[in-house]
């Protein structure tokens, strides 16, 4: 059995990217403590959603410096989605959504974001 392919999502530079994360609870009863988003090498999260104090509607959102003012994790959608708007070419890469449950094992779900430029310029030089 080979590696599971990473799902790709495409966004236009300057537009909105939508990166889904399946947060289904593996074993009932359980609840989510944290959802952390990482990009490329997981040094520190680029977005954190903290459910540890209160109800899911009271979860605290903490975008990292690179996403401040550009990102929000929508938990009221199915599947829940990290929205990045506007997107930059530098946003392209592999993102990992890590879900930490109170009792169940932590689950990490990777997705790949591909950014397409707004304009495609074709230059042809004929001598």
Automatic annotation (TrEMBL):
Family matches, as Pfam families: V-set
Superkingdom field: Eukaryota
Domain (Ig-like) ranges: 3-108
Record protein name field: Ig-like domain-containing protein
Species whose genome carries this gene: Trichonephila clavata
Gene behind the chain: NCL1_27268
């Amino acid at each position: 059995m080979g590696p599971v392919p990473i799902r790709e999502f495409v966004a236009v530079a300057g537009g909105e990217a939508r990166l889904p994360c399946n947060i289904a609870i593996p074993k009932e009863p359980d609840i989510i403590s944290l959802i952390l988003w990482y990009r490329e090498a997981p040094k520190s999260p680029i977005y954190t959603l903290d459910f540890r104090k209160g109800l899911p509607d009271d979860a605290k959102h903490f975008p990292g410096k690179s996403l401040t003012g550009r990102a929000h994790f929508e938990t009221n959608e199915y599947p829940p989605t990290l929205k990045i708007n506007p997107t930059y070419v530098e946003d392209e890469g592999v993102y990992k959504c890590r879900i930490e449950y109170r009792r169940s094992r932590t689950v990490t779900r990777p997705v790949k974001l591909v950014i397409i430029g707004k304009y495609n310029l074709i230059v042809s030089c004929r001598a």
